[in-house]
Amino acid sequence: MRSVRARTSLGATLVVALALAVAGVALLAVLRGSLASQAELQANVTARSVAVQVAAGTPFGELDLPDEAEEHPVQVVSDGRVVALGEGIEAIEGAGSRSVRVVPAGPVEEGDGDGGGGVSEDVRYSTGEVTVEGEREAYRFAAVEAKAGDGREATVYAGSAVQAAAVSGVRTAMLAALPALLLVVAGTTWLVTRRALAPVEGIRREMAAVTASADLSRRVPEPGTHDEVARLARTTNETLAALEASVERQRRFVADASHELRSPIASLRTQLEVGAAHPALLDLPGAVEDTVRLQGLAADLLLLARLDAGERPGQARVHLAALVRAEVAQRSGDRVPVRVAAEGEAEVSGSRAQLVRVLGNLLDNAQRHAEGEVAVEVRRDGGEVLLAVADDGAGVPEGERERIFERFVRLDDARSRDEGGAGLGLAIARDVAARHGGTLRAARSPSGGARFELRLPAV
Questions:
Q1: Helix (H) / strand (E) containing 393
Q2: Which architecture does CATH list for 228-304?
Q3: Domain 312-457 grouped into CATH 3.30.565.10
């Protein structure tokens, strides 16, 4: 049974059937108990009314018994003999005696009585069957002891019908109505589930169409409700939007990477072909420069691929101030001198190699734009470590301070590619900062140039 509607309808029907069965059994038990209590009460009243006559000294043969024996059969037993019996009783079980033959009581001898009589407060109950004029039925009997003033003692058994027919009728009616009720429950559940799952089917069809057409710009229909299905549709559309943006970014990345790789490869191939034909014309330094540029671009692309794949940085403790001083000391060939201001403890947790890459990218960017000075600052700022790289160049327009972190974005498109790079350095720096739980943003330096602030959680 693969259909959700079928499983839901079957489950609801079974639950309702079980609930109705339990409720029906409980109802019948309550009804049977109520009828039994009512029968005992009526039997007790009838038995005491006859017992009062016995206590008053009425002879057994003159007792006023109920006229309708089929409703309240009465049997009076004295000394093990049936001394009085309701009219029309043909058979009786569950009372004092199974005999239906009345034996007249003998005369009372003088001195047998003590002059006092009465009816016992105790009552005993039993269940039996009585046949009256060919009709056999179940009864609930009440037994009451009575004593006459002349010393006669007797037990009065009075019965009242248990009304088993009423219980049987209710049970029959419930069993007859149960299939129809279950059919209504199953049909209603089917229709309600079908209507509730209709938006889900719409989402499924649209997702199938998206898969078949590979068109990620399509969106699933969102119902106007505010239930789980509506939230599912909104989440699905958000996922499609994120997937579309990711695919578009990947497509643009591949196109830009291909474009960036084409230039150094073409230049290197040209120089090698010329050198092969005319060795004297080979520009060996240019070939080496193109090879180095191609190698750097390939390394940047591989690092971005690892970052996109979710590569987690290491958990080594890195002293950022010492790292900055060491890296700046190695950059002896920079065009503009670098001033370092590092103070206090500034330890972070992460990958030393990736943090060196971030620092190198920020310094390379500052060297390309600075006019006379590059300043590096490292300090503890609350629970973070701040690494700032500033230059005194033209700076970054405020409206472009976020766009420069996009991949293959260069604001100085007029300059040559050899001087400008591929536009991946700042994108890599921000991705590495994010992987380390930090941030990287662009601002304006006090000298009017650009200032890049890297903030990382302090150890």
A1: none
A2: Orthogonal Bundle (1.10)
A3: yes
